[in-house]
Amino acid sequence: MSEKENKNYNFEEAFGKSCFTDYQLQNRLPKSCYKALLAVGSGEKPLDLQTADVIATAMKDWALENGATHFSHWFHPLTGSTAEKHEAFIVPQKDGTVISEFSGKELIMGEPDASSFPNGGLRNTFEARGYTAWDTSSPAFLKKNSANSLVLCIPTVFVSYTGEALDKKAPLLRSMAVVSKQAVRVLQAIGEKAVSHVDSTVGAEQEYFLVSRELFNNRPDLRLTGRTMIGSMPAKGQELEDHYFGSIAEKVSAFMAELNEELWDLGVAVRTQHNEVAPNQFELAPIFSSSNLATDQNQITMETLKRVAERNDLVCLLHEKPYAGVNGSGKHNNWSLSTNTGVNLLDPGKNAEDNRRFLLFVAAVLKAVDKYAALLRLTASSAGNDHRLGANEAPPAIISVFLGKEMEQSLADFAGGKSQVAQSQNVIDVGSPFVPDLPKDNTDRNRTSPFAFTGNKFEFRMVGSAMSIADPNIVLNTAVAEILAEFADVLEKSPDVNKTIQELVAKVYSDHKRVIFNGNGYADEWQEEAAKRGLPNLKNTPAVLPTLLSSPVTELFEKHEILSKEELHSRYEIRLETYNKLLNIEALILEEMANTGVIPAGQKQLASDVKSICRQEKLGLNVAQQKNRIGTVNDLLEEIIELSCRLNTVRRESEAMSDDLQRQAEFVYNKMIPLMEDLREQIDGLEHLCDRRTWPYPSYEELLFTL
Ligand code: ADP
Ligand code: MG
């Protein structure tokens, strides 16, 4: 991107250009058709095939005008990434020519050959029918897979022949409808009659690492698992904290400029970008939108990050913990509820009435988070994220809510029956006449909290950087809907609504105060304190996954028709299987790197050291220290050989347990991972003592400090 081009960047014209937005629909569809589509969105009417035909043709014309050749139903299978199958717009004619065509039927329904997507036993492979169905609430977009391949992607849900959800979008859409319904009930009951719809809104901050492609290609661990399995820390890590918010290097800046333009073009409103704490780590954040759109756009963002990096001879690492010893990457899921009348329900009000409503919704969130803490924790669990949670760089595995002193005081006052709630919006005096006074936020920042109130939304900070944000939002929407339903049941019958609100908030505050924690979540004392309070502390994926089968979770999801018991069970199996398979791959790679790279390098080192020392000894030189050093190298080498043999045995043992996935996962966690860590420690020790020029893999120093 030349400087000149950049200066002329025209947001109004360029934003969403590759997106079939509402604007396009309005301009390209006959009025009656557009209206019919709106009616579909509001649930009044299903889409008829004739209307679908008209929309499909309009979409195809637009796509062809922009250079697309194919269309694809784009969906979110349970792998956590997205899937697409391209089909060209061509239809052959009798005379040997072709015409371009895209029918309504093709728009609204697809049938990918779905037997190879994970289904956790929901579909027998012999009847592996899966259907994709158009999600009219998320705009179709043009995806550039390479310079000359442009595909019209149609966001879809993915369901089985018998209607079970095989993806993450179907339950997300259901959860949005449920939270809307219950929030509307509450609002209607407290007199807000104009509200007919409530949207759950999400802004997902995304962290990532960049690494030079050449170095990446020389690391089999990075290539195959996205994280380094070995590598000793360089003299400098992140301790100086000089990377965070530091000025952005030119190469990265060029990458970001290209990335932004691609994302803007796709209608993703990325706004913030900066360096993160670890070297070569960065973050971006879009402007929030409805949770379905935010989820789609986060997937698009992850794909675009990878693609644009590739083009710049870089690789974007989305793994939660690419490097030991420096911070990993997460995703902050900012969440709120917003009415069709434009009110953010988690924004503290300016008058007593607004405040009452605000505190009622905060209470609903508090109770939901406490009651379904394990479930929420589960949505952030994966093999990758296990390296982060609880490791003094990310929130601990304990779910707690940060409200901030002032907010908690307001809640306590209101619960205690004080009608005048503390509402001081203080001003920070900077102490210089040249700098205007700053309004002080109602909450201070607490980076150590997994679930923090940040002024007008809650921020769930546990989510892993590589994960889809669908799961956390399905849970947030559904759990909050459940509590709002309880509230609505009471409020609808209440003769004195204001009094009932106060009673509801008071009850939540006294029953669920235990989940509020404003202190340092990284401190050891918090672990003890949380245990005393009875808060769950589920430290790893095998420990947390059975939550999916627990009765409170099954009841919650079945009651609100988000997921059935069978669907939950299938998700449980898929996640266990993914965990086990992934760790099996990691162990294999570690073994292989030890055997084919590390051990030969150590042996070479030893051989050349022995040769050189023998020569020196012959000359009568003192070589006592060198002999010590050789001894250490030899010991490490022996240890590495032994540990990698043991790892091989243990890995085979774990493989043999595949008929009991839970037992296998626990075995992997308790027996195999500690062995892998031990092996790594010895290898890293050896790396320190080996000739840099012959060590077979790029070092941490190169990976972290060059691009
Ligand atoms: P910080 O780094 O301080 O957490 P950022 O500005 O990087 O702040 O990110 C905040 C995110 O929260 C943005 O994506 C923003 O759009 C989002 N956000 C703001 N208001 C809401 C809201 N009402 N609902 C959901 N997300 C919101
Ligand atoms: Mg944040």
From TrEMBL:
Domain of life assignment: Bacteria
All residue ranges annotated as the GS catalytic domain in the record: 179-598
InterPro entries (UniProt xref): Gln-synt_C, Gln_synt_N, Gln_synth/guanido_kin_cat_dom, Gln_synth_cat_dom, Gln_synth_gly_rich_site, GS_Type-3, GSIII_N
Pfam assignment, any one: Gln-synt_C
All residue ranges annotated as the GS beta-grasp domain in the record: 69-163
SUPFAM superfamilies xrefs: Glutamine synthetase/guanido kinase
Family according to the record: Belongs to the glutamine synthetase family.
Protein name: Glutamine synthetase III
